[in-house]
Protein 1
Amino acid sequence: MSRLDTNRSGEMEVFIRVVERDGFSAAARDFNMTPSAISKLVGRLEDRLRVRLFNRSTRKLQLTPEGQRFYQRAVSVIADLDDAEQEAAVALCPRGHLRISINMPVGLHRLLPLVPAFRRAYPQITLDVTVSEKMVDLYEERADIAIRSGPLQSSGLIARKLGVCRMAIAASPDYLARYGTPQTVADLRDHVLIGYNFVRAKAEWPFKVDGEIVTVLPGGTIDVGDAESARHLAIAGGGIVRLGKFHIEQDVKAGRLIEILDAYYPGNGRGGVEINAVYIGGGGHLPARVRAFLDFCGENLHLK
């Protein structure tokens, strides 16, 4: 009897392959087994778990909700097993493939410039980096780490704080010359404030006026889909923008943007946005490649 018939991790591997290959026949070819043997193995797994993992029809297999949850955990378990074996084999030298999703400002202006140094430090780790404002599902996208800005939604993910990004209000010299430089928060009512058109964006801009926190709602006249577009629009004279200081530091030095209303910007964390790395946890085991990347970011990202 094949070890895959009796070994729990082997059962998981077969189940995962059936899901990813969308059927028993394709999975059977991968394992050099018959479709019938694969079907029986999955059936025994369902009997042992006392749940139905697939809804079967003559045309296709479809995961049940229980099957989807088991698939997500199985992928994580097998990844952990692979990492444990690799670490033991190479004396804990981090290696393997690392998939990362990161938002555009941090990705373009902080992370990507660090990739060559990370690769020199960890040549056995291969990288798949996606820079996007899309809020990815780590399970669906099979990503290892997502770096996210702002408040985190409640989830089963583990978060590691990488820093707090100080924010700034800025506009181009051309815009300010045409429409005037706001001297107070109230003056913003007469200006174009560039906002965002995605739901998860924190819309309000916080200011401190006479010791109290007040907020201003941007957008309506011009909304964009990501912070990098907002930056380019502001440089072009399209309006006033709120962006991370690290995001526009070179533009300010070069005179493309001018910071305004700095005296009204709140301290004590109210004027900053927290940056976190989130990843799938469980069992207390963090893959070496994930730990290496998190540690590297913590030491080199410099988001403050």
Protein 2
Amino acid sequence: MKTHVLITIFIIVTMSCKSKKSTENTEKMVKENPVLISKGNLYGSGEEGIEKQNLVITNDDDWNELKKQMNSINNVSNGFLETEIDFSKYSIIAVFDDVKTSGGHSIELKMTTTSEHTIIKVISKSPEGLATSVMAQPYYIAKLEKTDLPIVFQ
């Protein structure tokens, strides 16, 4: 009987400690929205030479090189909401998916900051129903305030 009571008390104490820790971590997380620069698709059938990747850009040279590569087939950067970035205040997040064999694919980003790092959750969306027969590569480019915290993609 004593053993059963001790086990029950141990389980209750253990579960309450986990719940408290989980609540503390949730309170420290701050959801933010990165500032959209552009999202859409590249239509060069992969000729731009951009692989599926997640980039953090922190300087003008890398930013200009990315724009040049994206514009190598079609002038994509003309549709950007912003092209001149103050890298002393901001960083750029650029996410590229694989080249798809149909249209209707897209990418969304969700950003959460904790005391330890910035988490960028990449959400790939597929078309529902019929889709166009076109080669397309989804991308999402956004800026966020410069931080010393590491950026982690999920």
Protein 3
Amino acid sequence: MRTVSARGVVAGALIMAAALDIESTRMTDFPVWPTLLVVMVGLTAVLWPAARRPTWLTVQVRTVVPALFSALFTAASALSGRTVPFGPGEVLILLCLLAIAVRQCPPRWALVCALLDGGAVLALPARRYGSLGPDAQGVLLVGLILVCFTAGLAGYLRALDYRRTVAVSETRRAERLAIAADLHDFVAHHVTGILVQSQVARMMTTTRPDELDQVLGDIEHAATEALASMRRTVGVLRDAGPDAARRPVGDLAAIADLTHGFAVPGQKITLDRDPALPADFPHEVQAAAFRVVQEALTNVRRHASDADEIRVALRGDDRRLQVSVTDDGRGRTRLPDAARGGGFGLVGLAERVTALSGELHAGPLPEHGWEVRAVFPVEKA
């Protein structure tokens, strides 16, 4: 709602400023339609909703075309020798387009589009003074300051966007490497079991052949589980390198150890595990459930250390596993900003959950508090 309101305020301000431009032109003997055309093209480029823009209306088109219209209008008025006032509407529109060009245009186009928009702003005094001579120097200096400030701010925001993109990409890659390490543990577990049971089967061929069928069935089950683990996880590991860092793999049983001793004095943490919850979920699903609880509890400590009650719930059946962590905190954390993390934990967690075809939800509760909930579909071998 805040974003929509801010856009509405910006749109209203631009429209009112454009109306001032049109009204100031009507008070002269110059035709109104050139000013109307320039401001309408500019408003369309700035305010056209992103969801409804046609494919041809790229960022380059949006930022170049209004600047060209404005520059042609300025050139025509200067050549005709007639004084044409320019108002705040066209200036604000061109500055908005300058910011869009610097922040959103592809690198090869950003400089060209920015120069056109900035040049159109700096050329506006020529309409009033007939040229950019000494009489227009004061207005030109103000325009130069506005152009430099807008371009600098947009460039800074573009750098922040780039850093955010890089951070998210690195977080996802790190999570994929961690999944690769976990997958190694899953496969090693099953393959080791296959190896041991194969050795037992070889010894039983001469001593207890009547019990051999049960051992072979266990071998088949372990092999099927190993293949299922690989099939469910290997799709997200294409760019994981061989130097992935190893880390311990948790399971549903380890969640109890994770919650034990987590609460600080004055807090209460409850582990609510459905007694009917199956214990034979695939290892990668149990590890992902453990990571959900681990990340959620870490976020409670970072962002909601004032929580009085924390609840960890495990629900499920033969077809799905649901893990949820809720707290009643109000966000009055006692940790310094440097200890709160970079905000990418949920990004990596979502990468892990979606890799298993699961769904992750994280958001505030109706009154106060926070909830992290993950649902994993379970495929039985």
Protein 4
Amino acid sequence: MSDTEKKTKKEYVGDVVSQLKEIRHYAETNTERLSAHWLAFDTGEYADKAFAGKVSELLNMQGKLHDELESLLQDMEIFINQED
């Protein structure tokens, strides 16, 4: 597509969906790492309840972000798949 051609809204939303799916993939990987750190602070070799609590809060926020991201992806995919 040349610089002078403008994408349709569906094409643009499709690009955003692709980017959000990539973000989701990396977020899942980061959540797994964060969970391992939480376990080390909660009951593992680096037991520290204060740090475990803070990491747990981050995991909860990450979970909420994941849920919102999934909802947005679903809405965008529905939009893309609607017939004109």
